[in-house]
Every structure is written in C-alpha cells, then in structure tokens.
Amino acid sequence: MDFFANVALGLETSLAPVNLLYCTLGVVVGMVVGVIPGVGTMASMAMLFPLSFYMSPETALIMLAGIWYGTGYGGRTASILLNIPGTPANAVTCLDGYPMARQGRGGVALLLTTLASFVGGTFGIVLLMAFSPIIAKYALNFGPAEYFALMALGLIAASTIAEGSALKGLAMVIVGIMFGSVGADVYTGAQLYTFGLLDLYEGISMISLAMGLFGVAEVISSIGKIKPGDVDASAAKFSAMKPTRDDMRRSWFPMLRGSSIGAFFGTLPGTGPSVASFMSYALEKRIAREPERFGKGAVEGIMAPESADNSAEMTSFIPTLSLGIPGSASMALMLGVLMIHGVSPGPALITEQPQIFWGLVMSFWIGNIILVFLNIPLIGVWVRMLMIPYHLLFPAILVFVAIGTYTVSNNLFDVGIVVFFALVGWLLRLLDLPAAPLLLGFVLGPLLEEHFRRAMLFSKGSFGTFYDSPITKVVMTLAAILLVWSVVSALKLRNAARTAAPAIPVTSED
Amino acid sequence: MPKDEKSLVAGLLLTLLGLAYGLQAWFSYDLGSLRRIGPGMFPLGLGAILTVIGVLIGLSSAARIDRIPRPELRPLLAVLAAFGGFAIGMRWFGTVPAIFALVLIAVHAERGRDRVVQPLLIAAVLSTLVWLLFKVGLGLPLEMFRWRF
Predict the structure, then answer these.
(1) CA B105 to CA B118: how far, in whole Å?
(2) Which residues of B are less than 8 Å from A215 in CB distance?
(3) CA dihedral sign, ordered A300, A302, A307, A312
C-alpha cells in the first residue's frame, strides 16, 4: 500500500550513490565536528551549505541532517574521554561517562553509548515515519490563520522555553523577523529597509547571517580558551571495550525510557536533544534503586541520555517536515535550505515531494548505521583528533567561512554581512542575549507575515480570524499563556537559571 | 540598588532598535488599511512590540545584579580585521593572497604564539586545500591570483 510504496521510494532515493556519498560526508563531518570542541553544529552546517547549491534538495538535506545527528555521536566521545562535552546535549554524558573512563572502562562506555544512540535513533525514526504523514494530512486543511497561529506558537515556545530570560528570547525573535523583512516586499515589491543598497534588494543572505552569528562569533569567543586535554589513549583499545552482562542488563530500560523522553522533547518546538538528555538523566537518577551510583560511573547515567539525545534529534524533524515549523535554529536552517532550493516547506511537502521526505527519513537509518560502523574501529582516530590545537584550527574555520560565503554569490558584500553578524553575535554573547531565536525569527518571519496578511485579507480586516476555528483557539490560548508566563517570570527576580549554570547548556545548537 | 548591567544595556539597545524600525515604517512605508495591509503594517507592529519588550527588559534590570564582563577585544578585532584583509585580497590580489592575509592577521588574536612561520604554513596548506576543493573539485570561478589595477 501507500506506506510501503513510500518506504521503497525512500530507500531508492537514499541509496542512490550521490545521496549515499553525501550522507556519509555529512555524518563524518558531523562526528568530527562533534568531537572537536569549539566548532559548532550550526557553524559546520553553515559551512557546508554552499556545497548544497550544486545538489538536489534531498541530497542537501540528507547531508546537513547527517551533520546534525552525527555531532551527537561524536560529542559523546569527547564527553567520555575528556570530560569536555562536544555538544551541549552530551554534557550529561560527562557526569558518568568520564568516571567510567577513569575506571578504565572508557572503551565500554563508548561502545555502549553507540548502541544507545542507535536504539534512540531507531525509536525516533519509527515515530517520524508513523506520525509525520498523518499530521501533514490533517494540516492540509489549515488556512493562513491556523498557520500564523501555529508559527507564532512555535516561535514563542522556541524563544521562551529554552535558556535564560524568556523576554530576551522573544526580543531576539522579533529582531530576527526584522532582519528577515529586509528586501523586497512579497506582494508589492516595495523595498523595505534596504536604504538604497542594491545588494540588499533580495534580502540578507541567510547563510551569511548564520555563518557570522554562529560560526565566526563562536570562533571569536573560543580563541585562547580551548585547550586540548590529556587523553588516556589506552582507553581506546579494543580489548577495553567489552561490556559486562551486568552492564547490558542495566541498560535496556534506561534506553527505552530515554528514547521516549527524547521523542517527546524532540517533537516539541523549543526543546530538543539538550533538554531531553538532561531530563532523561534526572529521571534515571530519581527512579534508580541506588541513586548514589550516579556520578561515579553508572551505566544508566550514560545510556538514557544518549538514547534521549538521538531520539530527540530524529523527532525534531516531525514538526519541521510535516508542518513546516522548525523547533530550533538547526531545523530553521534546514527549512531555509529547502526554501533556497525552491521547495516550500509545509504539510504539502510530504505529498508533493515524497522523495524529499522519505528519502531523508530513510537516510537517517543509513546514516545511523554508518555511524555505528564508523564509531567502533575509528575510536582511536577520534581520540587523536581531540588533540588538534585550536590555534591551528580556527584559521582554517575562518578561511572556509570566508571562501564559502564568497563563492555563493561572488560578492564581497556577503562577506561583509558575515562580519556584521559576527559583531552582532559577539555583542549578544556579552549581553546574554540568545542568538538562536534570532535565526528562527529570520527564517520564519517572512512566512509569518505572509500568513498574517493573507488571513487578514480573507477576513476583511478582522483580527477575530485568529481566534475563530478550534485550532486557532487552542493554539492562541497556549501562546498567550506562554507569553504571560514568560513576562511574569522575567519581571520576577532571580537567576535560578544562573545557579544551575554548569549543567545547563547553551542550546543554540539544538 | 541592584543593577543588571546586561539587561539595562540590552533593553536600551532593543528599545532604540524597536523605535527606529517602527518609526521608519510609520513614516516611509505604505501602511495600508486593516483590510488591505500594506508592506509597512507588520514592521510597524514589530517595532512597537520590540519597543515594549525593550523597555520591560530595561526595567527588569533593577531586579538583580549582573556586571558586563570586561570585553576581550583582541580576538574580536583580529578576526574582523582578518576578514577585512580577506576582502582587500579578494578584490585586488586574488584568492591566495586573500587567504594569506586572513590567516596572518587572524593569528594576532592570541598572544604569545608564533605569528610568522606556523601561520605561513597554515595559509599555504589552506590555499592548496581551497584550490583543490573549490576550484578543481567544484569548478567554481575563483581567481587564485589577480592584478586589478
């Protein structure tokens, strides 16, 4: 029937040589990026983005997605062996993974977490396959008012739930939308906020913005601060990798629980792998019979978060692909890629361009499998990579950003945009303003406005249309609740977030 | 009187941005009517909302204490200047000089490191990589050396 035909199409697409190639490239880059601290997921996705111009949209997505979930696999290596989380989502893995490495069980930890990631990923992919088409089909009945409401809710959720001050997150979303509005107006062609600059007529280049705001800004703040650690190379030997029966026995349920938590938080906009891994660790510790084992090398403490992390990575694609609503900055980047390739994201994507959706989903399976095979024998290699000094690395990053940006349009103006947003990014870090919502607002802003105007057009100027149908009522009420809660909690005192500091990650990479 | 410097400055900047953006929409762009919304209406709304949020953030600075850390300007300026060097190189001298400029300037971001030999090597390696990847591999129009005068 339909489902199997789609799966077959997906397999056919994802197994095509070009897609296999770029899937492998993506996951390898992702793993490397995940292992090396100081190079972020967003930055690497942004850097490989210019390559994607020469590919079809599904290939581009397959590659970028590979980078995204590949970093989870890689980040865990740094967490376990060095106590340095390669990605925010792996921060929790340090808590029990590093002690395990100190006990000489680093190899075991690496092997087991590979398994955990694979299980989590599988769980997430199955959910993705099952639910996205259903949601999409239902969503096809949505009108512009519903879309506006959903997008607004997604943006509000993404900016208020994540880190730090919700008010600041909201402000940044709006700033992002503002930057997105630069250029020609969709309906009238009028030039907005371009101030006569010809280069801005088509708007600000998303990729330049992303590279500057996330890539270069991160480099600037990392210079001089990243030091390669001492790695215990013997932990990477094969013989050190066999898990005990006790390990396995203790792992099954944590993996299951972790995958479920991951699936939940992955689907929700505003939360992603980082939150999922934290919650999962907290849950395991709470329900454990001997909670004092945690923090000293408890297997459950690494299995659950790693499953949650991967599961969330997969299910993050559910709202993105079925509704066209990204729950995080990385998802927004992928949507942006689709848009640049001329594909409009939304519920129609699954039915109109099935090869994109199913090809991508199937590539997740393949990518996960590739990662499993890459991880095990190459652990020694990753360990060596951890020792590359940052002062050799960062010029390379900058060069690739510069050249990559330039080759997109052969225009130095775009390089200027990168510089501008690098400065903006630096300023944001200084003031504790989150950058991820800015990208979200930038990508979604134009769409948001379009739906708004269309809804108002249909309703002949009545704002009531946004509270008309059952969907809009529910969504807008939720949005209002979130807004009120965030404003109230911002005006109230306290840095409860600040005191939890070391454990709470900057979720700009989710 | 406790004061959150970060929120204060952030609030100020955001309020100003919101005002500037909104006023530009109000005065320069066609707002249309509610029935037929013009290009300026949405921006006006955005500006208004941001102004309000900016004020709220600024006010919230009274609630806690936080200092803005002394900014480390060296990495920032080095990287920005490096890109400037890249631009000059690309415009007048070609890709390879641009890469060399970028690397040689960027390494000034760190004190006490080798600023000549290692960077030259890095720049050379990167130039070769870029040539291989972008020019040979992807066939992109990148002039390695040029003389535009």
Answers:
(1) 13
(2) none
(3) positive
- Judge: A51–B138 Cβ closer than 8 Å, yes or no: yes
Cβ neighbours of residue B51 under 8 Å, at least 6 residues apart? Answer: B14, B15, B18, B19, B22
CB B62 within 8 A of CB A492: no
- Lookup: tokens for A83: 């106590």
3 state SS of A115 = helix
- Using CA atoms, how far residue A294 sits from A92, A281, A505, B147, in Å, is 11, 9, 20, 64
Best A213, A225, A399, A406 member to test B by mutation, with max B CBs in 10 Å, is A399
Which of B59, B86, B92 would you mutate first to test chain A, the one with the most A CBs within 10 A?
B86
Strand segments, DSSP code E, in A16-62 are none
Nearest to A461 by CA among B65, B16, B36, B32: B36
Query: How far is CA A55 from each of CA A52, A68, A205, A252, rounded to the nearest angstrom?
Result: 5, 18, 19, 40
Residue of A nearest to B112 (CA): A224
Q: Which of A250, A255, A259 is nearest to A288 (CA)?
A: A250
Q: With an 8 Å Cβ cutoff, are A395 and B29 in contact?
A: no
Mutate to test the interface with A, among B5, B37, B49 (most CBs of A within 10 A): B37
Strand, coil or helix: A302: helix
CB interface of A with B, residues 381-440, below 8 Å: 391-392, 394-396, 398-400, 402-403, 406-407, 410, 412, 415-416, 418-419, 422-423, 426, 430-433
Question: What's the ipTM?
Answer: 0.93
Do B122 and A177 lie within an 8 Å CB cutoff?
no
pLDDT value at residue A2: 74
State which H helix or E strand residue A191 sits in.
strand A191-192
Nearest chain B Cα distance for residue A174, angstroms: 7
Q: Note the pLDDT of residue B85.
A: 94
Of B106, B79, B93, nearest to B144 (Cα)? B93
Asked if A82 and A288 touch (Cβ cutoff 8 Å), the reply is no
Q: What is the pLDDT of residue A201?
A: 86
Q: Which residues of A touch B30 (CB under 8 A)?
A: 188, 190
Contact between chains at B21 and A178 (C-beta distance less than 8 A): yes
Q: How is residue A378 written in tokens?
A: 């190459």
Alpha-carbon span A324 to A347, nearest angstrom: 7
Handedness of CA A299, A301, A304, A309 (dihedral sign): negative
Res B51: pLDDT: 96
> Which pLDDT does position A345 carry in this prediction?
84
pLDDT value, residue A382: 66
pTM: 0.81
DSSP string, B25-42: HHHHS--B-SSSB-TTHH
**Regions in chain A scoring below 50 on pLDDT:** 1, 234-236, 238, 493-510
Contact A432 B10 (CB under 8 A): yes
Cβ(A76)–Cβ(A90) under 8 Å?
Answer: yes
pLDDT at res. B9: 92
Does the beta-carbon distance from A461 to B91 stay under 8 Å?
Answer: no
pLDDT along chain B (149 residues), means of 10: 84 95 91 84 93 91 84 91 93 90 90 82 90 77 75
